[in-house]
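Handover notes (outgoing to incoming on-call)

Open items:
1. Formate transporter: sequence verified, structure written out, both below. Nothing else pending on this one.
2. Nothing else urgent.
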Amino acid sequence: MTEPESTELDESVREAVERSRSGAPAVGSVVRDRFSSDEVFQRIVAAADEEITSGARELFFSALAAGFAITITFLLYVSMKASTGGDPVLSAMLYPLGFIYIIIGGYQLYTENTLPPVALTLERLASIPALLRNWVVVLAGNLFGGTLGAAALAFGGVLSPEAANAALELAQKGVETPWWSLFFKAAFAGLIVAGVVWVTFAARDTISRLAVVYLAFLAVPLGGLFHVVVSYTEMVYLVMNGQLAFLVGLTEFVVPVLLGNTFGGVVLVTVVNYFQTTENRLESARFEGAKRQLSIREWVLGGLVGRSYVPLIETEEGTDDHPDSYRVVVPIANPRTESHVVELACALAKSKEDAIVDIVHVVQVPSRVSQRYGAAQNQRIISHSNEQLEDARERAAGYDIEARTSTVVSHRSFEEIFTVARRKDADLVVMGWSNDRIWAGGRAERTMSELTSRLPCDFLVLNDRNYDTSRLLLPTVDSPHSALSAEVAKSLHSVVGSEVTLLHVADGPDDRERGEAFLSDWATEHDLEDAARIVDDSGDIERAIADRADSHSMVLMGATEQGLLTRLLTDSLHLDVVNDTDHAVLLVERATDRSLRQRLFGR
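Formate transporter structure tokens:
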């Protein structure tokens, strides 16, 4: 091996070693044993991303363990207070022990969550609803754990009589503190806790973190400050001893402490530290997450309108496209079995000038699985996906169009398609559909009517049984979805020579003449005068389509005003022609602006 090659290999190995599994820096770039504020921020974002995308069960039980661990702090504090005659310094010597368990052990504590998830949210890599969900779950777990701990102390005979009296006195003193005094004392405690989190992410070894946590939390009792979970445990202990009404303790003691801790952590630490970082704060963390920031609407409303956070991995590389390019996005779950979807998308793109086909392999992982993907695992996923996408690239090459492939790994399936379509500014999405496709799992993500009420572009959904585009049956009505079906039929006719048959169903025999006139005008309007025409006067649209489906190789079905994708993903698309025919069916929905009233009640 030559010297340059050896040097290059050494640098590669060093870079791999000096990165954590999430991509955040493991050593400083300027001074190896000291991180810059940007590098600390990157480490915090990497940790916060794992927390905010964890399942509710995982978060809750981690928070419950933290809440119960706080009982150790309360227990040792009142025990030391009783045994030392109330000496303020000696009494506090073991106070930090519960917090050491929590922070070093990686449990979820609400006051710690005023920094990492908020930093992620400020960077628009997580939505505000995702942050609030994280806070609610963690706080609920902390308080439940504190309740269990207080019950154990109150009824378990753990405390000596002297320590029990000290506990009552301590809790009573907190309750009697004025509301605003509690708030500001708690704000300083919140500052200390969030500051500890920042400093522990700047530390490189456990001994340093241990020293920081101990000294910082020692300042809470010595300064007469208040921590919400400790205060809640004290309050519940007082209630269980019949010394206080729960609601009074909650509103006059716990709430001001909660607000103060939140204010101190978010405003005095997180926001201040955020604005002292530079534009390079996300240079490497979160797979260049700055390029995938949420829109303002997604950031404010989160899952109600789109993404709550960004994908785990995305291999797309930035390109300089012509602004007038026609973009066709093809999200696929299994590149080896969805070749017909790619073929259809390429045929449609071929009929457009300056068209680009983006084939996106969407790899879904269960939401309950933590995002602990290391560099080696990431590379395996990407490498395997690239191998699977080779067939798709070869098919696209046969159409002599510009085609690109990329891989996205995400906890979402169908929702991720909308994210990709918006980010790529797609004109058309072509995807596959059958009962065993990954998109069937989209129903569990969130309300599909919310997701599909405002499509980012036109959608085609292909059920590719016996895929064949030689003979197309196109049912016609006066709707934008039927007009999109006409555009698809024209494209396939010009590129692969498809024969097109137009079908219109009249209300009855008396309406047949009007139906013939409509179909003639419709064919002219959509430049399909050469297509064969059929007018059915049975008045039964579904039966009319089913009767003629077997004599054609593919049926193009336009959406109703209720919405194709909404019905498809909520299992309400019960059409015999779709389920029973042995031929391919292409479901078509055009992106239209519908008012709230129209989305609720139809047109």
